[in-house]
Amino acid sequence: MRLASSESRFLRQVAVPEFGEATQKLLEKATIALVGCGALGGLQAELLVRMGVGELRFADFDVVSLMNLHRQILYTEEDVEQGRAKIAAALAKLSTLNRAVRLVALNEKVTAHNINDYLTGATVVLDATDNIETRFLINDWCVAHHVPWVYTGVAGTSGMILPVVPGGPCLRCFYPEIPEADAIAHPNKDGVLSTTVAMAVSLQVTQLLKILNKTVQVGDLIRFNVWEPSVRVLKLAKNPACSCCN
User: Do 61 and 109 touch, CB atoms closer than 8 A?
Assistant: First the structure.
C-alpha cells in the first residue's frame, strides 16, 4: 500500500491556526538535537518524527532496563531481554514512523569533548537529560553559539520548562551556580509519573515550535503539576550579573 502525500499526512496539524503551513515548512527544514533518549527524549523524538521534522539527532549512552518501561515509550520488553542500547532500539523504532526524516544517532554521552561536533548545525536543542551538569553544559554552549534550546526538568508529579533564546535569560540567570544534587527534585529520589513526562514534553515541544515560528515568549518559565492539576507561567528576567549570557 502506497502512502498518501505529505499534505495528507500532516493535514490535522496544519489545520491548527497557531501552527499552520508556515510552521510545518519551518519544521521540515529544521535540525533538532536531543541530549538524552530516555523518558523525555523518547517522547520528544517520536512526536517530532511523526510531526515531520527535517533532521533529528539523538544521543544516549545507556542500555534499556526494565525500570525504564513505565515511562520510556520507545522501548519494549524485548529490548530489555536483549540488552539493547537505547540508541539502537530508538533508531529501529523511529525508522518505522516517517521515512522522510533524517535520523542521526550518537551512542555516547554528550560531554565537553563532543558537544561541539554534536550540536553544530542544530536549529534548536532539546534538553532530555536528568543530569544538571549536562544541562549547564548545553546552556553554555547554546548561549555562546546563539542556538536556542529548551530546558525541561521533571520529578514526581511536577516539572518546569524554560525556552532559552539568544538575547533572553538563560539557565544561569535562574541558577547562578550549579545546585547540589540534593537541593533539587530528581526522579532518582522523588520518582516520576509517566503522565508528568508526557505533560512536560508536550509543553516543551510546543515551545520548540514557537521558537521556530518566532512566537515564543522570552523568559517564560512554565511550572506545572499533573496531580493538582496546575500550570503557572512566571516571567524570568535576565540577570545582569549572569556569568554566561552577560
Answer: yes
Nearest to 61 by CA among 32, 99, 90: 90
pLDDT digits (tens, 9 = 90+) for 106-154: 999 999 999 999 999 999 999 999 999 999 999 999 999 999 999 999 9
CA atoms within a 13 Å half-sphere pointing along the CA-CB vector of 225: 5
How far, in Å, CA of 227 to CA of 143, rounded? 34
For the chain, list the domains and their CATH numbers.
Answer: 7-11+19-235 (3.40.50.720)
Asked whether the predicted pLDDT for residue 1 surpasses 70, the reply is: no
User: What are the helix (H) ranges across the chain?
Assistant: 6-9, 11-14, 20-29, 39-51, 77-82, 86-94, 115-119, 132-145, 171-174, 187-190, 194-212
Q: Above pLDDT 70, what percent of the chain?
A: 96
CA 33 vs CA 62, 78, 86: distances in Å = 17, 27, 16
Per-residue burial over 192-224, b = 16 or more CB atoms within 10 Å of its CB, e = otherwise:
bbeebbbbbbebbbbbbbbbbbeebeebbbbeb
**Helix, strand, or coil (residue 227):** coil
Nearest alpha carbon to residue 34 among 62, 58, 55, 54:
58
Residues 172-204: tens digit of each pLDDT:
999 988 877 666 778 878 899 999 999 999 999
Note whether 125 and 138 are within 8 A (CB): yes
Residue-wise DSSP of 73-88: TT--HHHHHHT-BHHH
Grid cell 522523588 is found at 190
